[in-house]
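discrete fold record:
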Amino acid sequence: MTKAENADKQEKPDGRKRRWREHKIARRAELVDGTIAAIRLRGRDVGMDEIASEIGVSKTVLYRYFADKSDLTNATMVRYVETILAPRIYAAIGGHLDEFELTEATISAYVETVAADPELYLYVMANSSGAGQDVVADSERMIAELLSTVLGERLRNMDMDSGGSVPWSYGIVGSVQLATHWWISNRSMSSEDLISYLTMMIWGGIAGIASVKASPARFRSAPHPLITDEEPPTEPGV
């Protein structure tokens, strides 16, 4: 056997492995998309039998591509974060908006994404333990890090102290996520009201930070009355 023939023989198994690996990746993505559709249709408590039925395959096929239900669940969570939640948040954060508009747009993007897919969101959060918890934590970390980059850059452009941009960003992401999770579980107010309340809270913090040039020293030395002597603006029609 020549060297060329021997090399060709060695490459063929590798080629088959590569094609199978590519097929498996593509097929897993199709099955995950089918799982997302099943969750939207049947709700957060959907089981493997129902998922398989909605996709039009047997459970045997699911287990051919996923080690177990946890593997499928984690893949679904990653898909939701990477293709639905994160892109909408990134688009809002990356928009060419002023600081208030950016605050409102980012909060709106998160709340509206959750509101548009409540069963899928609740499925993701209900399974966020073990490896699933890492998926959720990673998504929150990615959003917070991006927000801190934007916030830090804007503070520096205004000659303000940007040292707090990271903890502030994590605080914003954490508060919005937790408040939205509370809201989607009981819907005691409209999404518009939730966005307004969260925007009021977050913007109030940002405006307070800006008033002392983002300096902890200035903040500690300034008075902190809860109500100022200024007349509050009147509501329209009042």
The CA atoms of residues 63 and 238 lie 64 Å apart. The mean pLDDT is 87.
